[in-house]
Amino acid sequence: MNITKQFTRYVSQNIFGMLGISCYIIADTFFIAMAAGTNGITVLNLVLPVYNLIFAIGSMIGVGAAIRFALMKVKKEPEADYYFSNAVFFVCIISSVFILAGIFSPDLILKVMGADPQIVELGRGYTRIILLFTPFFMLNYIVSAFVRNDKAPSLAMVGTMAGSLSNIVLDYVFMFPMKMGLPGAALATAVSPIISILICSVHFLKKENTVRFAVRMPSFRLLVKSCQLGTAAFIGELSSGVTTTVFNYLILGLAGNIGVAAYGVVANFALVATSIYNGVSQGAQPLISECYGKGAEKSVRKLLHLGVGTGLLIAVILYGIVFFFTDSLVSLFNSEQSPEMARYALEGMRIYFIGFFFAGFNIVGAGFLSAANHPGEALLISLMRGVAAIIGFSFLLSFFFGFTGIWFSFVAAEGVTAVITAWVLSRTKR
After folding, report:
1. Can you tell me the distance from the alpha carbon of 217 to that of 293, in angstroms, rounded to the nearest whole number?
2. Exposure string (b/e) for 274-295, b if CB count within 10 Å is 16 or more?
């Protein structure tokens, strides 16, 4: 097959799907800012790490199981048929913990994340709804990953974009005409994965489908094997939550709720950038796994070079947009026209996004290593950028440089990790 042509097809379609997710993240933040001002954005930013954890677990099991499915299918091993149903079973079990938390303790979760009584009161309904719909968020990752790995990237893209666009429409309908406020925003977000799952499930009715829902006893062994290759995806998703949690903690001490709201603006645009890079990584994954399974080493290396080059190009475009349109981007979410929030967010956008010149390389590199059956190396990169480096630099730089140091900590963490990523990839290629 023409590797470049296939790469362009898979990655572009997956990026479009991820852009759909990005659009609804931005729309969600915009509508919440209009309806509840800076306190609404604060609620969103405090709940974001919980949302990241839900997505991280879904991606670890879904992406990991789909990679195992692709590798086993190339080798024509019968075990390939068991990964889908096994992933669905364990996701349903794990999500029950989040459902119980949504029923009994949304207030406690908000307090643990640093919310004061006013924010707890405002965010209770939003948090509860997000937690109650956890199974659908996780299942969406599984279904879309398997459909994409079963040579139907176009359908996966359509499902993702349809879910995202429905979220934007329902955000407006629930929050304004129906006057549901923040719970309306949560409900719109919760409906989105259901629509995506329904559309992607059409693939299972087609004759080209090779994904089987095999009924047999759930297997922890298959779950562990899936999670091994999905750990990089897990850390990649979770890193946003870790970063948000640590930054919220530090910013609350430095600038209070206004500072957290400003970071909420930066964090939401950062999620857009991360989603695009995940689109490159996850879009290339089925091709890398297939070529690796066939022993086509030259094709695997070419896919890595294409991924890294695409990531660098995206970084240039993103930073150009952020640098020249910072005022306009920040003003979208500053409905109260707070000069303090605008000042914090303007500085943050221009500093923080420098880090994506390195982050793209790290995300693509970790995704490549997972797809090529190098879970240990992928885990090292993901843990470094998502946990160790960002926590260390955020405390260190905020101590010396205050709020400005927090923005630079992301740049420093991704830069150090990029050096490690380059070293790991050079060793793996040899």
Report:
1. 27
2. bbbbbbbbbbbbbbbbbbbbee
Q: Where are the alpha helices (H) located in 105-219, listed in sequence order?
A: 106-112, 117-132, 134-149, 153-175, 181-200
For the stretch 386-406, pLDDT in tens is 888 999 999 999 999 999 999
Among the listed residues 97, 85, 187, the one whose alpha carbon sits nearest the alpha carbon of residue 143: 85
From 374, 90, 55, select the one nearest 222 (Cα to Cα): 90
Q: What is the DSSP string of 190-239?
A: HHHHHHHHHHHGGGGGSTT-------S---HHHHHHHHHHHHHHHHHHHH
Backbone angles phi, psi at 344, to 5 degrees: -60, -45
- Give me the domain span that covers residue 275: 3-429
Convert 20-81 into a string of H (helix), E (strand) and C (coil).
Answer: HHHHHHHHHHHHHHHHHHHHHHHHHHHHHHHHHHHHHHHHHHHHHHHHHHHHHHHCCCHHHH
Amino acid (1-letter code) at residue 115 = A
Radius of gyration of the chain (CA): 21
C-alpha torsion 243→246→247→250, nearest 10? -170
Q: How far apart are CA 6 and CA 4, in angstroms?
A: 6
Contact in structure between 124 and 91 (CB atoms under 8 Å): no
Give CA–CA dist 329/30, Å, rounded.
10
187/313 Cα distance (integer angstroms): 36
Which stretches of 62-211 are assigned E, i.e. beta strand?
A: none
pLDDT of 326 strictly over 80: yes
Whether the full predicted model's pTM is greater than 0.85, yes or no, is no
For the chain, how many structural domains are there in total?
Answer: 1
